[in-house]
Amino acid sequence: MSAESPRIEATEFTNPNLEMLYTEEQIRDRITELGRQITNEYRERDLVLVSVLKGSCVFLADLMRAIDLRLTIDFMSVSSYKDGTVSTGDVEILKDLSNSIRGKDVIVVEDIVDTGLTLSRLLEILSSRGANSIKLATFLDKPEPRVKTELKIDYTGFVVPNRFLVGYGLDAAGRYRNLPFIAAVRDPSVA
Ligand code: IMP
Ligand code: MG
To answer: Does residue 114 carry a catalytic annotation?
Structure first.
C-alpha cells in the first residue's frame, strides 16, 4: 500500500480473521448440480422443502431456485447451540411447521450437520407425521464430530473439515450469516 492511499477500515467480508474456504462461484455451481439432481428425482411428487432456521435460509433461497419443479416451502426452528460453539444435545422446537406434511415428499434443508444430534431429533419428530417420504439435504457435512453416525444424508453441498465455519447462513453468536461465501474463523476467541 502506498503512503498516499488512506487506510480503509476492514469491512465484514474482508475481515482478516476469516479464511475463505468456498467462494460464491463454487457455491453457486454446486447448488446448481444439487438442484438438477433433486429436479430429476422429484418429478411427479408433492415436494415440500423444510428449512431449519436460521442457518439454512440462505441455502434454501438458492436451492429452491435451482429446483425446476412445483414445490412449497416451510420453516422450523429448533435450538441446539445456544450462543457458544459446542453442541449440547438438547433440542427444543422454537417454531413448528405451518402446514401438515401428511402425504408429502419432504426434504429437510439444513445448513450444516455436525454431531447430527439436532437433525436426528428433528427427523424423529417429523417421521411421526405421516409424510410419504423424508430426505435430508445439508449444505455442509462435517463428519468428524458426528455422534449420530447412523444419520443418512441424501444431498450434500460440501464435506468440510472439523473447523468452526461461518457465512452463507452460518453464524458465530449471530454474526457472519450475511457473508456470501463460506469461511473458517481463524481465531474464534476474537470472532
Ligand atoms: P449438530 O447438532 O452438532 O449437528 O449441529 C447442528 C447445528 O449447529 C447446525 O445446524 C448449526 O446451526 C450449528 N453448527 C454446527 N457446526 C457449526 C459451524 O461450524 N459453524 C456454525 N454453526 C455450526
Ligand atoms: Mg442449523
So the answer is: yes
Ligand 2 (ion): residues with CB under 5 Å are 55, 111
The crossing angle, in degrees rounded to 10, of helices 57-65 and 24-41 is 60
pTM for the full predicted model = 0.90
pLDDT tens-digit series, residues 66-91: 999 999 999 999 876 554 556 666 67
> 183 in ligand 1 pocket by Cβ < 6 Å?
no
Cα 132 to middle of ligand 2, angstroms: 24
Measured by CA distance, the residue closest to atom 8 of ligand 1 is: 81
Beta carbons within 10 angstroms of residue 83's beta carbon:
8
| Ligand of minimum distance to the alpha carbon of 185 | 1
Sign of CA dihedral 159, 165, 171, 172: positive
What would the pLDDT profile of 107-140 be if each residue is shown by its tens digit?
999 999 999 988 998 999 999 999 999 999 999 9
